[in-house]
Amino acid sequence: MSRFFAGGLSDSETSSSESSEEEELNSEEEEQSEQEETSDSEDDMFGPGDSDEDESSDEDGAQGFLRSGAKVGANRFLRGEESDESDEDESKRVVKSAKDKRLEEIDAIIRVIDNAKKINDWVHISNEFDKLNKIITKANQQGDVPKSYIKAISELEDFMNEAIKSEKEAKKKMNATNARALNSIKQRIKKNNRQFEDLIAKYRADPEGFQTEVDFAAPEPVQIKVPKAAALLDAAVSAASGADADESSFSVIGRGGRTLPITADSIFKQLRAILEARGKKNTDRAEQIRNMEKMIDVAATTYQKIRVYLTLIATRFDLTTSTTTFMPLAQWKSAQEEVNSLLGILEQNPLYLVQEDAEDVDDDAEEPTPTDGKPVKVFGSIVSLVERLDDEFTRSLQHIDPHTPEYIERLTEESVLYAILVRSQIYFERAGLSSSVSRVLIRRLELLYYKPEHLIVTVEQNTWDLLPKEISSEITPNIPGQKASDLIHSICVKLYNQDNRLFRTRAMLCHVYHHALHNRYFHARDLLLMSHLQATIHTADISTQILYNRTLVQVGLCAFREAMISESQQALQEICGTGRVKELLAQGIQMQRYAQPSPEQERIERQRQVPFHMHINLELLECVYLTCSMLLEIPFMAQLGSSPDAKKKSISKSFRRMLDYHERQVFTGPPENTRDHIMQASKALATGEWTKSRELIQAIKIWDLVPETESIKAMLGEKIQEEGLRTYLFTYAPFYETLSIESLASLFDMKERKATALVSKMISNNEIAAALDQKTNAIAFISGVEYSRLQNLALALSDKAVQLIDSYKYR
């Protein structure tokens, strides 16, 4: 008995227990010393053991632990659990390898599956089948597939086929969950058994022989540490030497240095494996691409080459999965060359058609061939590959710094992309794929609409030089000397006849933009008004709304170049008056004062950005808008005069706000930027100093970016003269009874005929109360019409009193 329980015993019992414990301790110490002697002898036989210090420390620790009072318990703890068997039986342990443990686990799962098959429990079968495949995946990596597994999956497939044959009767008895599990495992078993087709066929041919067949293991080689790179190099050398034996195949180095031979007969099997691994984690896409590049050389038929190209191009695009990055230039060029090669194969073999609505063939045992002139339809989408090329090109331009030579070098690839679009359009026309033709045409139009006339003509000529001579288009034929406007018109007319509303809307906006860019204002205005897009554009997607904003701005700039100041200001007011020009035109993110966008919103905004070479100059846009607002707002302010509604009524609120801020400044120095020039010119125009205003406006350097700069400056000088005359008459009309037109014309340095026309227009529009005396060639002002400030306030008070009386009367 332990001393822990000795506290409650008598002295005699304690002494007897202590004597018995001492005898047990002596016997145990003798056994321990004998075990230590045997361990020392074993160490001497098999190798060096622990040092003497370690042994003495272990013995001291054990004896100290025994003296502490828990002697028997400590000894049992050190020796393990006590049993009635002998020490020899306790020392025997069964050591199993990882392979044996895995086999036992596989056998246990197979037994569970067999039991579930007896009660037709497909839910349990599905779960256990997944567990079994996870274990087999690890075993397969080491090149070891148990024969019991081959037997189990073969029998499970047979059992499943029998269940499917009687599926209608079984479903009546089967609940919904079990039926869903049966449908789910049906696809997984077929997909899984494809990997072991040869072994399953061998088992079904001779089940007993397959089970009793012995695998003779090769003798284990001497373990030498070889670097992984050297091992792979040796495997590659062996694969290369084996390739000489059969020139029509090559070997791919797989996991563990195993060689996977690929021939023309096994191409479809390898492609199916690549497609099944697509999208999974830990998939080496670069290795898959290298394998498929070799498959192109191995492919013997046209059908095989088409299938390999479709899979290869799609796999290249899988390399770039994040929306925050763009496809590497080398991969993009490779994909572009492969799309060209694929189109070349389809052009040379017109009986092979790649269509999205074709049937996807799972079993490629028999390769389809065209018979009786009927084309073979291959499942795929060339238009999606072309669109992805365009998207990746645009994304790269969004991420590259536009002020570096890299951007210019990347932009040179646009001609190659445009040639692919034209070539794919011709193929879709020949194949009769109208929806694909529309998708390519809208991409082609969006690469042309913002370019000037001469640049479009150059791009078209270079494109047809790159394409084969034997192909041509019915929609956009290659006509020497064709105008760019005719090409844009033919593309847009084709898109107008499509059922897709989005294509029609975007084609209309691109057409309007092109007309406005080439100073055809009335064509652009009429198209925009007839489309009625102003009423429905808010329901469109974000990219279409951005295109609408760009088109509206270009129409306003076109009206300004055509000297239509009022029309230009009205078109630009909707965009420039909001203070969010960058966001509306997708040319950057403008930080708001009290709003901080989230990272997600900022990322989405950056994805919508228009490439830099398509930008509209924001400084020029602001300059045009403020200049038009000045020419309209200053005469309007002079016309209102001292009216109490003068501050409430305005043509451009943003311009009025800037002007008020400028007038509140204590000290105004010389103008430094575009806004300062326009504000000081507005102030000079309001005081009648039209020459100073003209000089300030013409001194703005941004006008040098406008085509025909001198004509623009001359037009602005004339407009400032006219608005200066109108402002002068509005301001000083109450102080005149008559005013000579000759003196008025000399004051503003214009011809009398032009001054007379301006005054007549103001009189006819009831802007001033006057009459034109042709005999004396003077303006006779009618007095008593203009009210003083006190009279205006009295009239306003009387109007409010009448409104108050009316509201009280009908209460």
Task: Summarize the structure in short.
The chain has 811 residues and is mainly alpha-helical. The chain has 37 helices and 7 strands. Helix 23 packs antiparallel against helix 24.
Assembly state: single chain
Q: What strand order characterises the main sheet?
A: 5-7-6
Helix and strand content put the structural class at: mainly alpha
**Main sheet summary:** 3 strands, antiparallel
C-alpha-based Rg, rounded: 45 Å
- Strand coverage percent: under 5%
The total count of helices amounts to 37
Helix content: 55-70%
Shape: elongated
- What is the number of domains? 5
N-to-C CA distance? 109 Å
Provide the low-confidence segments as ranges: 1-91, 214-250, 253-259
Mean pLDDT across every amino acid position: 78
Please give the number of β-strands.
7
Can you describe this structure?
By secondary structure, the protein is mainly alpha-helical. It folds into five domains: 3-83, no CATH class; 98-212, no CATH class; 231-262, no CATH class; 266-499, no CATH class; 619-781, Arc Repressor Mutant, subunit A (Orthogonal Bundle), CATH 1.10.10.10. A three-stranded antiparallel beta sheet has the order 5-7-6. Strands 1-2 form a two-stranded antiparallel sheet. It has a two-stranded parallel sheet with strand order 3-4. Helix 17 (382-399) packs antiparallel against helix 19 (414-431), helix 19 runs antiparallel to helix 20 (434-446) and helix 27 (565-576) packs across helix 30. The protein is elongated and about 130 Å long.
